[in-house]
Automatic annotation (TrEMBL), chains A, B:
Protein name: CASP-like protein
Transmembrane segments: 6-30, 37-58, 78-110, 122-148
Known partners and oligomeric status: Homodimer and heterodimers.
One Pfam family hit: CASP_dom
Natural source organism: Rehmannia glutinosa (Chinese foxglove)
Length: 152, 152
């Protein structure tokens, strides 16, 4: 089994997982700190999905750290399939969540809603952009692992 | 090259393509007929993407019809890759568009906006649901063709 940059258990994968976790945490912070996001379904959805992406990415980052620094990676196709399916589902959900939040924020901004006081909507927009970045990195993880799985 | 149900140039693929086209046209009709969708970005996005899915699906349905009824299918990996990438990009875009439209519609319904007169928002919601169904079928086409491509 040859090494492939970005596949589970390599330094590349570790970097991708950290990227996902950082963008998701940033999205959560922009969305939650000192705001009342729970009055809008789309924002609740975004927070829920980002709250799922963070532990998923950190767990897989831990697996990568163990593989890279302590012992050579063990990657049976079963485990790889679970990782691929999880990445896949989370990437769809985070794309959906970020688009929903972005469109509701755009709508709020356009309608001049009283909810958008003190640049709150800008923060929501940044949170949606962070979720979108997290989706992009999740997608690249998924694609690399699918490619690797097909070559196993 | 063995036959695979749903791969490009088979009866299964033809059925999937017709499903995509029918759901996309339904979404377009629900969104456009007798409404003023263009005042909301999310709705314009949905209409644009559905307007891309319809010709894409019909073109590939034509290819399938030619393959099934007139001559055996010719599927070089290059053409298959283009089809897979096109399906892939359109599936992401249609998921994003349907989620955006659904979240804006939900928001309009919840806020009791005057735009939602005479069950207009129900129609938008149905249009978003049709786009979501179109996404599901596009995704299955993509997955089947990726699987087939990896076995070529």
């Amino acid at each position: 089994m040859e090494e492939m940059a970005g596949a589970l258990g390599t330094i590349g994968s570790l970097a991708l997982r950290f990227g996902q976790a950082i963008f998701s945490v940033a999205s959560l912070l922009f969305m939650c700190l000192n705001t009342e996001f729970y009055s809008y379904t789309a924002f609740c959805f975004l927070v829920t999905i980002m709250g799922l992406v963070v532990p998923w990415s950190l767990t897989l980052a831990l697996v990568d750290v163990l593989s890279v620094y302590f012992k050579p990676p063990i990657r049976p196709p079963g485990i790889l399939s679970i990782v691929v399916v999880g990445d896949w589902v989370l990437s769809f959900l985070s794309l959906a969540a970020s688009c929903s939040a972005a469109s509701v924020t755009g709508f709020l901004l356009a309608s001049g809603d009283s909810f958008c006081i003190e640049s709150l909507c800008i923060r929501y927009r940044v949170a949606a952009a962070m979720a979108f970045m997290s989706w992009l990195i999740l997608l690249s993880s998924t694609l690399i692992n699918i490619w690797f799985l097909s070559s196993v």
